[in-house]
Amino acid sequence: MSVYRKFRISHTAFCIAYPASLYIVCNAINFEKLAKWFPGKDGLDYLSLSAYLLAGLCLFTAFFTLLAHRWTIKPLAILLTVASAAATYFISKYNVAVDGSMIQNVLHTDPTEVGQLISLQMIPYALFLALVPVLLLLRVDIGFRPSGRYLLASLAVVVITISVAVACLYLNRNSIQRAGTISNKYIVYLLVPVNVVSGTIGTAAHALAPYLSFHRRPPEFSATVTSPGNLVVVLAIGESSRQKNFGIYGYERQDTTPTLREIEGLHTLNGIASVASTLYALPKILRMNRITLPAIVAKAGVPTACYVNYTLYDNCATVGETRVTHCGHGGHCYDEDVIPLLSANLQAYRSGYSFVVLHLGGGSHGPIYRDRIPPEFQRFEPTCNDADVANKCTLDQLYNSYDNTILYVDHVVGEIIHVLDGSGVPFVFLYLSDHGESLMENGVMFHGMPPGVPLPEEQARVPLIVKASVPISIADRAEYQQPDVFDTVLDLFSISSEKFDRAGSFINLQKR
């Protein structure tokens, strides 16, 4: 006989007890982050907050019960437990919001980023929110009535919980709607595991869309060059580099851009990002009307290449992307390793138009900033070398670590410009970051806000740098939106298409 006896529970009881336990424990840890959006006359609006929490619990219970059957109930419970533990940890430590974009980012996270996110601070969460509950789940013996009876019981649970959820939301709709409006839907992205479930459903729908009959394929389009010329346009896209910490933008803490500061003819513009997730930020720069910039430029007959350190996802699928190989630094690839690919491209250039996209995807991405740059650029010390920056690092350490990445961005962008200058080709070079980064301003760390939630200034304001070997003029604007880059590239190549009006273009070529 086993020393450990299994705990017996009916299917119906489990479908009520398990969701309630998981929901209550996870949301109790981050209760204050959620409750602050329900202000009342004497502190908290307890009635509306309670109604919202009860509605969330009922909806989660209904969802779980619908999928919890004889062969799925335990695997589903284990997956939800582990995912909820992770979501609770990152909400607690980094104030992140968990939505569909966050789920997609997790799926696209490489092993390096996974390693960076692991810290000792995760141990209590992994132990008490994941490991212990999973072991308990494995010991539970769930009893099922005959098929007809247990399905009827499940249906009853679903009907009752959905009815209660609808009643709670309807009777308190004004207060809950007000909280949702004030928080820009942030209250939805904080509610574990409702956020995990909704984000996963959204991600699944996004992944399945190309295989469904109603999925809209990219439209047919034409593109022609109306005024041929000789010009190489190089668009370099960075990662998580915020404008605030660039010396050439007035950052006074320490000079983080010594190379760029010495380059003459540099234009520093006020770039604005609207989303803070690479997966969604790249299309803001490279996609419009469901057509990618490399696709339309190539369609017009302009030779186009994409050289990347980190993938551009499907934003360069039409022409294909070339990833860096044979990297220095002991085989570890850094952003500077795209430069030899650019150099080879420039050496082959003879005349006409040419377009090159560079993805400097290492950039200033956390949580361990030192892993994104070569050791020789670790100049500002002491640094923060722990993923749990909120508890293990001082602000000085955090800023030093981040500023080291900007120092490296300065080096890479400067080297790209030097290569272009040395090649003798006529060129226009643009650099901008996909989004910025929060460094504990207002308690926010890293990046990533759900759709509809305004970006903090640190994540919204990005560097937009322009350098040209040919005479240009730049439209005078207070802000330059990322989609304006799309129009600008088309305008530089004089590409005409029925799908685009180039209204956002901000660079004009001047006649010699």
Descriptive overview:
This protein is an alpha/beta fold and 512 residues long. It folds into 2 domains: 7-211, no CATH class; 231-509, Alkaline Phosphatase, subunit A (3-Layer(aba) Sandwich), CATH 3.40.720. The protein has helices spanning 11-29, 31-35, 46-67, 73-94, 100-107, 111-117, 122-139, 147-171, 173-182, 186-190, 194-208, 258-261, 278-286, 293-299, 339-348, 389-392, 395-423, 457-460, 483-492; strands at residues 7-10, 39-40, 43-44, 140-143, 224-225, 231-238, 267-272, 287-288, 291-292, 304-308, 321-323, 353-359, 427-433, 438-441, 444-446, 461-468, 472-474, 480-481, 495-496, 507-509. Strands 11-10-12-6-13-16-7-18 form an 8-stranded mixed sheet, with helices on both faces. Strands 1-4 form a two-stranded parallel ribbon. Strand 8 (287-288) and strand 9 form a beta hairpin. The termini are far apart.
